[in-house]
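Example record

One chain of 288 residues, shown exactly as stored in the release files.
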Amino acid sequence: MDTENSLDLKAGAWEPVLFSGRLLGAYCQRLPEHPAKLRVVRFLARLLLTRGLHVRNKFTRSELLVNPTDAIGSSILREGGYEPVSLSLAVNLMRLGGLFVDVGANFGLYTVPIARIEGTHCISIDASAVAVAQLAGNLERNGLANVDIVNAAVGDAIGLLRIAAVQRGNLGSTRVLSENRSAPGGNWIPCLRLDDVLQRLHRPKPILLLKVDVEGFEERVFESLDFGGDYRPKNILVECDPVGFSTARSTFKYLLAQGYSSFSIRGDRVSDCSNLPENNAWFRDSRT
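Predicted C-alpha cells for this chain:
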C-alpha cells in the first residue's frame, strides 16, 4: 500500500502570506547554505517578522501565525513545511469528518487544518501554556469553534508533573521532567488521564485519529486510554524516535499488543520503529 502516492501532499505545504515572509522564505530556500546562514535568518526574522510568520495552506484553507525563530517555524521558512507527509496523512484520514484528538497540539499545526474539515470535532491537548495561547490565537484566526482545548499533561495517573522546554528555541521540545520534587527547574502542571478528558468533553464514540507527540511520554498517554472501551481509536499517529527517546520501542510494541497494525506514514508495513520517515508511525486498528 503506497499511501504517499495516493495523498495530496499539498496539505503539508505552507507559504508566507506577507511580502516580508515570502522574501525571507526565498532567502532560506534558494540561497546556498553557509555557516552563518541560520544566525542571519534569525536576525532577519526578528527584524522583519516582529508579529510572527503568517502562513497559509491553500489546500486546507488554513492560516497559522508561527514563531519564525522556533524550530517548526524555521522549518516552514526553510522547507515550506514541517512533517508534510504526516500532516497530509492526518488530513486524508479525517477527510470525512469525525473525532480527532491531538495530544501535544502545540500551536495547531495539525489541529487547525483538520478542524477546517466539515463534520470534525477536535480535542487538542498541550501541557505548555505558551503553546495553548498560540493555538487559541490560530483557532480564532481561522474562525474555528469546533475545538476543545485542554491545558494539561496526559498520563496514566492523575496528579502533578513538571515540564520544561529542554531545547532553546524549540517550544515543541517541552516535555515531562523528573518527577522528583526536589529537582530544580520546570513548571508544575496538572496531569489527567485521557479517558477522563474524553468522558468529560465528548460523548462515547470511537476516535477516528489520535495523534500523540509528547517527547518520550507517549506510552504513559496510551496507558491512560481504555483500548477496550468506546473511544478506541481507529487510527493512531505517534512520534516514534528510538534515537531521541528510549521509550520509543516499548511504545511501538505496546500498540501492537493492543491489536493494531503498524505502517510508516507512507503506508509501508513496518515491524519496528527504526528509520521511520519524519520519525512518525501510523497504527491502524486490526479489529475493524
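Notes: The mean pLDDT is 91.
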